[in-house]
């Protein structure tokens, strides 16, 4: 997700992460002798490359639950609110959700925020006052930050869906959730760093933001993958945890200091690709051969960087914003139709692993952005059919 501008320090992140399945290369490194100066054995490297080849493919859609009827949306009021409208991907999701709701006959109000919990509180209060049928919070607003307002929404009979929250256990005052695969994306980044570095041991700088729900999981994924693949040869040399509101003012100097303090760093892992624009100047100034950025989010601005010659962004795994919107709408339809919400383990916006050699597929004709890199209109059409509105499907 492309996080830009000021934001608020969120409450403590939950312990659970994306519902990812460990990559093939997550297994302990082969006992085969590893040549001096290399990260992993030849057999492990081959397994890593096989895993990455699969991650680079177009993801497939799987029905999150039984068929339901979108007719329950007709005339219903829904408020959609991103964690921060200055977060590019989250803002896009919110607009996509609004457009989708309109197409399905709902009255969707988009409530913009700049990442302040007080704004989230106001948004929920507005939905209660308007007697809306549902509230959709996007990009992982932590429910504990707005618990009294959510309690009021529950008392008013309003269905609440938290998109990209990634909490696999029931949370009080939440009726449904959707997930993204942060853990899997960061594991793939570690795999690719080994390949990109020519199997040299990875000496990593981890950059995260624990004020974002998926931040701790992203850091843990990098550490565990390195420990699994090459524990005695690779390491996380340093970790930077920078709150959202300090990205623009703090990241460049912090990264510069870390690179000066640790001249052996040869890979930078970034939990959220929106941090990239603030990290990139420090990486450019380092003039360190082989040093590159490996991140997660799938933001169009970062994917665009990979189309440039000699890009310092080596990989950016991530989901599709429109798919996120459809996942959230699916949960709303289920809840308003008095059906159980789909399990968060089924309501997932899957990653596609983007690197310079395949990133051109991310963009549509004339360098436009659409769903081309995620199978075109296939997932949309499948959702429309699941909801009993096949006439909305497009070719």
Instruction: List the helices and strands in order.
Output: HEHEHEHEEEHEHEHEHEHEHEH
* Structural class assignment: alpha/beta
Strand content: 5-15%
Question: Reading side by side through the largest sheet, how are the strands ordered?
Answer: 2-1-3-4-5
Oligomeric form of this entry?
Answer: single chain
Q: If you compute it from the alpha carbons, what radius of gyration comes out, rounded to the nearest whole angstrom?
A: 21 Å
Molecular shape: globular
What integer is the average pLDDT?
A: 89
Helix content: 25-40%
Provide structural commentary.
The chain has helices at 42-55, 88-103, 117-129, 147-155, 182-196, 215-229, 247-261, 276-286, 300-305, 321-336, 378-386; strands spanning 77-82, 107-110, 134-138, 159-162, 176-177, 179-180, 203-208, 235-241, 267-270, 292-296, 313-317, 348-349. The chain is globular. Helix 4 links the parallel strand 3 (134-138) and strand 4 (159-162). The two termini are 28 Å apart. The chain is an alpha/beta fold and 395 residues long.
